[in-house]
Amino acid sequence: MDRRKALRTIGFGTTAITVTPTVVGMLQACQSQTNTFTPIHFSKENFSVLSQLMDLIIPETDIPGAIDLKLPEFLDGFIDVVMNEKAKQKVTEGLDQFIAVSLKDTGKSSAARLDRSDLDAQLAKYLKADQQQQNSAQDDKAYQSASAFANQLRSMTINAFKTNEYIGENVMAYAPIPGEQKGCVDLMEATGGKAWSL
After folding, report:
1. Per-residue confidence band for 129, with pLDDT thresholds at 50, 70 and 90
2. In angstroms, what is the C-alpha Rg of the chain?
3. Cα angle, residue 88 at apex, residues 146 and 112 outer, rounded to 5°
4. CA 128 to centroid of chain Cα atoms
5. Rounded Cα distance, 175 and 169, in Å
6. Domain extents for the chain?
């Protein structure tokens, strides 16, 4: 991932951050070629669940999915470096609650036993819930926490996807050296319908 682009996007998406060696290291770690990754913020078991959830949100198609793009690794570092303690705790508690509800619904004994179909069903339960389903679970604190986490994870996954160097250069409209300024033009005419990469 291009550090400059990622930092610019992080700064626009949240509050501005100071470029520290830790932030630089986090962004460089996304490009690491090693297959062994030790999560910074999450436990290994929770990171495995998080990775599967992110891959369900952005699966591999004709372009790489979340795991191939190393989005879970990026998100783990992003949470650890950029978020304040209260936000980190909220994410951790949300994932824990998501796993707890998933275990209760499936009758399984540990997060390691949750398979892709279990997690897909849980994501669908929260992300595809209509207003009536949301209202009926209004008093269920566990459901509300897990639902908030699922929605937050979807948002963070999409943001990580959009700021990924490969996606920015190969999927989105990309001009490394911007040329001319055109006023009101149709997106189809300008980029073939693609959003611009930062």
Report:
1. confident
2. 18
3. 55
4. 18
5. 8
6. 3-191
CA atoms within 13 A on the CB side of 115: 1
Is residue 36 very low, low, confident or very high in pLDDT (cuts 50, 70, 90)? confident
Structure tokens, 118: 């279990």
Residue carrying structure tokens 């951790």:
92
Using the structure block, give the residue that is written with the tokens 């209202």: 135
Say how far apart CA 75 and CA 26 lie, in whole Å. 10
How far is residue 24's CA from residue 57's CA, in Å, rounded to a whole number?
A: 27
Distance CA 51, CA 69 (A): 11
With a cut of 70, say whether residue 19 has pLDDT above it. no
Long-range contacts of the stretch 171-175 (C-beta < 8 A, 24+): 171/63, 172/196, 172/197, 173/197
